[in-house]
Amino acid sequence: SNSSQSTRIVIAVALAAFIGTHLGRSSAWARSTSKEGIGFGAKVWRDSPTLAYLAKLPPNTLLYSNAPDLIDFRVNRFAKPVPKVMDPITRKPEKTYVPFMQGLHDDLAAHGGYIVWFKPHASRWYLVTEQQFAKDLPVQQVKKFPDGTIYRLAK
Q1: Residue 96 half-sphere exposure, CB side, CA atoms within 13 Å?
Q2: What is the rounded (10 degree) CA torsion for 84, 116, 105, 78?
Q3: 2-39 residue pLDDT tens
Q4: All residues at 6 or more sequence positions from 48 whose CB lies less than 8 Å from its CB, including other chains
Q5: Rounded CA gap, 53 and 101, in Å?
Q6: Which of 3, 90, 91, 147 lies most in the core, judged by the most C-beta atoms within 10 Å?
Q7: 22: enclosing H helix or E strand
Q8: Alpha-carbon distance 59 to 78, whole Å?
Q9: Is 133 helix (H, G, I), strand (E, B) or coil?
């Protein structure tokens, strides 16, 4: 019948429009990510002055960071994580914060090394903030870059 044929035409046109708009967005995304990269492979991390600085440090330098996985992936170095203030699963305050900070302090006091702070990552909301960290630990800034800051224990 005419009404069912009209309905099929309307559905086909709507489907073609839907696919067309998504095809346009998908190809724009694909062009952008092939040029800029994605995740830790992104251009922002390939060109990171903070990571370039870390790459020049002696290989056995002790590092702590809010993004130890980024350091491992981009510079092939081991970094220990900064403490959590919240449990990411239960969303309750982390009870190990104070002893963790004491252990971090003692580790850096004994071995030297740096705390590497990358610009905030929304996905890491459960970690101590840079401001809180600097308040709870006597640190001094070593280098500041557009994408991160490097600290060491204050002398």
Answers
A1: 9
A2: 90
A3: 778 888 888 888 777 777 777 666 555 455 454 555 55
A4: 74, 145, 147, 148
A5: 25
A6: 147
A7: helix 2-36
A8: 9
A9: helix
Q: What is the pLDDT of residues 81-132, one digit of tens each?
A: 999 999 989 999 989 999 999 999 999 999 999 999 998 666 788 999 999 9
Assessment of whether the complete model's pTM goes beyond 0.90: no
Contacts of 138 (CB under 8 A, 6+ apart): 153, 154
3-state secondary structure of 129: coil
Distances (CA, A) of 28 to 84, 91, 147: 37, 37, 26
Q: What percent of the chain has pLDDT over 90?
A: 61
Token output for 93: 């305050």
Which tokens sit at 120? 């905030």
Distance CA 51, CA 145 (A): 10
Give me 111's structure tokens: 């071995």
In the block, residue with structure tokens 């308040």: 135
Which structure tokens are listed for 51? 């990571």
